[in-house]
């Protein structure tokens, strides 16, 4: 397995700061906004965004975790494990920012839309992703806020490593998967 570093810790921090400033431009007060991190890996980015936004704006920002396992179209065909959903605010009428680390086929985002509406009808939904894998979409899904677009092949994957998950430092890798011949 061959891998190439595409984001180091410093670039991840710079990108998160840029994304926060983009969010501030569009949400200013965050009074009616909430961040929903998609389980399992989007929550680490969502937590970082929230903390940085609160440091910059000095405002409390609602944060929740959304598990989409039972809303996935491949739920019965795989052995995916469910994670906790934690939403302690009202979704109804809010501007919700869905956060995930990598946008790939769009199927997780579709499932997130279904899962989120079980908690109410938001006024507006936006998508923020650290990495947008170009040319891989199965559904017409596009992120409003993107850290970086990366051209990838089907034989490649993106691996995001967070300190919170035990990595030595935050990093993002482009991994060449070996053929299973």
UniProtKB/TrEMBL annotation:
<dbReference type="InterPro" id="IPR029057">
    <property type="entry name" value="PRTase-like"/>
</dbReference>
<dbReference type="InterPro" id="IPR000836">
    <property type="entry name" value="PRTase_dom"/>
</dbReference>
<comment type="similarity">
    <text>Belongs to the purine/pyrimidine phosphoribosyltransferase family. PyrR subfamily.</text>
</comment>
<keyword id="KW-0805">Transcription regulation</keyword>
<keyword id="KW-0808">Transferase</keyword>
<keyword id="KW-0328">Glycosyltransferase</keyword>
<dbReference type="GO" id="GO:0004845">
    <property type="term" value="F:uracil phosphoribosyltransferase activity"/>
</dbReference>
<feature type="domain" description="Phosphoribosyltransferase">
    <location>
        <begin position="6"/>
        <end position="163"/>
    </location>
</feature>
<protein>
    <submittedName>
        <fullName>PyrR bifunctional protein</fullName>
        <ecNumber>2.4.2.9</ecNumber>
    </submittedName>
</protein>
<keyword id="KW-0804">Transcription</keyword>
<dbReference type="Pfam" id="PF00156">
    <property type="entry name" value="Pribosyltran"/>
</dbReference>
<dbReference type="InterPro" id="IPR050137">
    <property type="entry name" value="PyrR_bifunctional"/>
</dbReference>
């Amino acid at each position: 397995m061959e891998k190439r570093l595409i984001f180091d810790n410093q670039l991840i921090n710079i990108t998160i700061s840029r994304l926060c400033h983009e969010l501030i431009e569009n949400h200013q007060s965050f009074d009616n906004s909430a961040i929903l991190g998609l389980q399992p890996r989007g929550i680490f980015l969502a937590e970082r965004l929230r903390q940085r936004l609160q440091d910059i704006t000095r405002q409390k920002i609602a944060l929740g975790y959304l598990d989409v396992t039972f809303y996935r179209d491949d739920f019965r065909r795989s052995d995916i494990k469910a994670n906790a959903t934690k939403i302690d605010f009202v979704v109804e009428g809010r501007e919700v920012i869905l956060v995930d680390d990598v946008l790939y086929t769009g199927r997780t985002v579709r499932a997130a839309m279904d899962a989120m509406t079980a908690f109410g009808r938001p006024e507006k939904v936006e998508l923020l992703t650290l990495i947008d894998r170009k040319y891989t979409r199965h559904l017409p899904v596009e992120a409003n806020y993107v850290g970086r677009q990366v051209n990838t092949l089907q034989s490649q994957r993106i691996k995001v490593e967070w300190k919170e998950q035990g990595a030595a430092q935050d990093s993002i890798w482009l991994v060449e998967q070996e053929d299973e011949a």
